[in-house]
Amino acid sequence: MKWLGIVAKHHKEYVSIVNGFGEHFYAEDIVQETYLRILKYCKPEAIITNGNVNKSYVYFVLRNMYIDFEKYKAKHPKVSIEEIGQLECDPYCVEKHECYEEIIRLINNEVEGWHWYDKMLFDLYKKTGKSIRELSKETTISTKSIFQTLKHCKERLKENVGEDYEDYKNKDYELILKKWQEEKNKLKGLATASNKY
Q: What's the CA dihedral at 76, 81, 87, 93 to 10 degrees?
């Protein structure tokens, strides 16, 4: 560990080298990380010969640490809190998300009304992402039966939710939200009517 103290005697020089690479704010941190890397991966003989530090070796470690730091910065850009506070929520995105949630709710409601066998096969196919042949092998149900069941399930979905899904694809979000509001108001009316009695 004493040998690392010998390497650290030139600390200011190492910081100025990192400053020369173009990093001024995190130069100290890069140098400290370099010490840790040298301690972890290097043998004292590789860096210190006859009491002198092999500065070219340290230079290459510093350069590699700086390059790693730049790569990390490129992958994970920093955003200040002030910038986040100034972001405004786009109403279009909120509307799109609400419509997506409504489509998912409609599909789930439709699937809930199916026969248990249809529901089980559809859920297996949807959630596992396996092919019909793989499902057939695992469940020992014939591929023809699985194919026919899924075909009928998809047809029922197209019939009962297809129009809303087409509205979603065509970005007619107001049509879906209008329908959703009407259903919500109906349910409210039924709840208040049942509370009266």
A: 50
